[in-house]
Amino acid sequence: MCVIFFLSFHIYAQDCDEIKKTMTPDYEKLKQMIAVENANKAFVFSDSLLQILTSKKRENCSISFWIGYYQGESLELLMDFESALKTYYKIIKNAEQQNEWEIAAHCYVSVARCHEVLGRDKDCYRYLQKARDLIMNHKLYQVEPTFAFRYSSYHRIYGIKDSAIVYAQLAIDKGSKLSILRAQTDGFMLLGILYNDLDTSSRYFREAATLFYNNKNYVGAANMYLNISNKYWKEKRPDKAMSALDTVQMLSTFIVDKNKAYYRILGQIAEIKKNYFEGKNNIDSAYFYLNLTRAYEKESQWMVNQEKIVSDAIGFAIDKEKEKVIYAEKITFLLRVGLTAMGLLMLVLSYVVFNNHKKRKQIAHQNKMISANNEALSQSIQKQSILLSEIHHRVKNNLQLVISLLTLHGHNTNNPSVKNYLDDLSRKVFSIALIHEQLYRSGDFEKIDTKEYLNELTSNFQILQDIHTQIEFQTDADHILLNLETVLPLGIICSELISNSLKYAQTENETIKIYLSLKAFGNKYLLKYADNGPGINADLPNKSKQGMGLTLINNMVRQLQGESSRYNEKGAVFTLLFEEKMVSTV
User: Fold this and answer.
1) How do 563-568 and 572-578 pair as beta strands?
2) Range of the domain at 465
3) Which of the residue ranges 3-7, 278-282, 505-509 would you say has the lowest mean pLDDT?
4) CATH code of 211's domain
5) How many CA atoms are closer than 13 Å to the CA of 216, on its beta-carbon side?
6) Rounded to an integer, what distance in angstroms lies between the CA atom of residue 194 and that of residue 54?
7) What integer pLDDT is reported at residue 502 of this predicted model?
8) Per-residue CA distances from 104 to 15, 94, 111, 167, 570 (Å)
9) Cα–Cα distance for residue pair 358/363, rounded to 1 Å
10) In this structure, is residue 393 part of a structural domain?
11) Count of structural domains within the chain
12) 0.85 exceeded by the pTM?
């Protein structure tokens, strides 16, 4: 029976592989239609492909799930979110039964996107968490760029701006490494939305528009230049806004699929022109474009039945619960069989126990010996704990001696560069000595409270500064417990960043203000550092121009296996997203 099942499954798998080879050209054609947002054509084409697969009874093949997924995307582009969600729910249910985890994760992300558009933030977050669970449990690295962008978009609307920026940059970086164009374009678009600075925002929008245009997605490119035009309009620069609008109008002539997205673009063009002519007091032209705006708005309007959306979501949840019930029934049956087998086993065990009655005295004797050994071991561990505490104390004292020697030599030298170098070394050694001091004080030799650590580290910098240097710290750190292997590079990074601010952020008669925060995000942590100095030199990314301090920071980031970014926003800003380092138990 098992052999017959295995052979039938093997033949089915071969058929799926064969039909995938046959339909790959059509599948790639469908993907390109979605990439250029040719929604109507993509929906009709995907429907015909699914009918072919249904006629061949291959609805549960992987290629069928992917074609259905892109049909769902075409429905989203057509603003039919009810049908799109129904499509995604169906694919998730069937894909999970076939262990097709990648397509299931993509569908969860798409469901989250639909709920975001519909303003359903809790549902959006819930499906994002389901996608994240699949990505982590099954190592779905190909899905990470798409998830990172969608998570960034969620934080942009409902969360924290800094987190949105971090995840948008993550989508661009991972999308670039994996050649996933959509993650890059969407990431640049989000950064354009997130940054308030007009030049920075416009630059990111143009990056996205270029990628869209090169991929012949004229709808996406037109929308980017619409964003630029609106930015200029808000900044009261109408000539620049109209120049960007000319580019939008030119791109709109290339759009083939005249769907709601196309008319929405035309409607926004007409609305900006109406506002422009109103500003010029040209009433006739303004009235003409007002009527044109209303006409295009009618063509681009879409409606959604929220009750139907809720009903479908509940139906999907009920189906999932039914599957759990069926699974539970199978488990119950297996438990009954197991209990029966266990009963027989207990009879055998009872017989064995009866025959081994004579050995119980020997076991009791051995237990006494083990208890004595355990007590001796406990005393040994206690002694080792005391010794380890003393070691941390002595290491801290020795490092303090090193700091004192460095400080003494610094005071005895008349060379300012040598004194600054020795002071810098003493601060780095202090960041390490402080770790051993906290381990000794707390009695916990595995974890360090990062809030207390950062507070003491910044206090030391304030104490060591001369009267001519005015420095003000603002720390915002949670009580996060991290191991020594994580805090050591983290402390060196913070110490080096503060040293850099003291060297380069000082301006005449102005206090150096430094902001330092450490927050937890799930199983990751976000460090943010900012000062009010002149900002980061544009030449710093050139490795030949990097100083020892920046090289040390980059080495510590790699040691943490983290992801860092630097940018200017009223001064220099440094962010680091990292996880606690795994420590071997051996």
Assistant:
1) antiparallel
2) 446-586
3) 3-7
4) 1.25.40
5) 9
6) 45
7) 83
8) 22, 9, 10, 21, 43
9) 10
10) no
11) 2
12) no
